[in-house]
Amino acid sequence: MRYLVTGGAGFVGSHAVLGLLDDGHEVVVLDNFSTGHRGAIPAGIDVHHVDLMDAAATNAVLGEGRFDAVLHFAAISLVGESMADPLRYFEQNYISSLNLIRACITHDVRKLVFSSTAALFGGPERDDPIPHDAPIDPGSPYGESKFMIERVLHWADRIHGLRSACLRYFNAAGADVAGRAGEDHRPETHLIPIVIDAALGRRPALQVFGTDYPTHDGSCVRDYLHVGDLATAYLSALTQIDERSVVYNIGSGRGYSNIDVIRSVERVSGRKIPWEAAPRRGGDPATLIADSDAFRRDTGWTPRLSELDHIVETAFRWREAHPEGYGL
């Protein structure tokens, strides 16, 4: 099969590219490189340096040859930033996705797998673990922008026959088990690489944002999914949209707190990590844990790499070996 991966130079997208290549498929990457890295893309891959906000350029890529499906990762995705600048998130995420969806319809691409988010369930009144049919209550403009795209995909199927899988995943983490790719954000905002950098002496004492949540140790609890498990979930989702569109929550089904993550990095690294309590951040729910039972039942997928210490160990090895990320 031949697949287009938008955001294929980013953290999750680059691991999906590796998964597709390992499975024997042809891959084309589209990325504007605002946050992605060319070094994350394997040699020999056809790469288009294109911003999805450019409708004409996006349409040209989709028209260059037959694609069996699109895997859409490209987005801006910081909850806190979206709380400070909501209109940018609605503009960037919604319009860019609209351009892509329109191009897929124009060029008769019949399948799209969308990188959605657990931030759709950001409100305080909900159950954990969270099933895919839980009430939608975004706690941030970022989550709202993703839900708007899900609704566009719903109508694109009903009217134009573009079948989609919306995967609402919960904190991708870790690194490729073979060491081919890892996590490199500029600046880094994800907890596990930040804690690892503290262990490696690359940053000062950590701040834990909120230690008064109703959790086992007062810090936020999240469902961490190894990025390799997430890549295989995308491959599994492609098999579900031959006849119908689907929506799934994807996660490990286990919750780990911010302090649990610190303790895990201490175990893996053998180093003590200094940290201090800081005020809560706006838009952060106390707990986000996925109920992935529907996806597991329909596809047979199961996370195999997502025990916390294993996630941390793969991330630690990659980050220790690449002190400058993809710059080295």
From TrEMBL:
The keyword NAD applies. Keywords: Carbohydrate metabolism, Isomerase, NAD. It comes from the Bacteria. The keyword NAD applies. It catalyses: UDP-alpha-D-glucose = UDP-alpha-D-galactose. Pathway: Carbohydrate metabolism; galactose metabolism. Coiled coil: none annotated. Gene3D superfamilies: NAD(P)-binding Rossmann-like Domain, UDP-galactose 4-epimerase, domain 1. InterPro entries: Epimerase_deHydtase, NAD(P)-bd_dom_sf, UDP_G4E. Its cofactor is NAD(+). Its EC number is 5.1.3.2. It is an enzyme of class 5 (isomerase). Residues 4-251 form the NAD-dependent epimerase/dehydratase domain. SUPFAM superfamilies: NAD(P)-binding Rossmann-fold domains (SSF51735). Belongs to the NAD(P)-dependent epimerase/dehydratase family. Homodimer. This is UDP-glucose 4-epimerase.
